[in-house]
Amino acid sequence: MSISIINGIQIPAFDVEMLTRGKLIVVPFNQFQKEGKVFWLYPGQKLPYNLSLEQYYQPEYLAKAKICSVQHTTYPIHIKAWARCELHWHINPDQKQLLPKIAEATIWQLSALEHIFEQYQVLKLLILRVYHLSTLSVVNTPVYPSAFYWNKAEDLINNASKNDTPIVSNASFIRRKTLLLTGKLYPYTDIESLQFQCEQMAQNNTDAQQLNYDIKNFLGWTSEASNEKLDQNRDWINDIASLGNRSKEEDEEKTNYQAGTDFENVVRDSLELLGFTIDYAHKGGAGGLDLFCSKPYPLFGECKAGKKIPNPTAVQLLNLGMLRRPDLFNQAAKLIIGPGEPTTQLQDAAKIQGMAIIKPETLQKLVKLQSNHRNSVDLFKLKEYLKAGQSDEEVEKYIDQVYTEMSLRSQMITAVKELSEQDNETLKATHPSFTVIEIRVHYNVTHNPRLNDEVVHDLLIELSSPLTGYLGRIKGSNWNSDRFYFLRDLPIN
Question: pTM of the predicted model, to two decimals?
Answer without folding.
Answer: 0.61
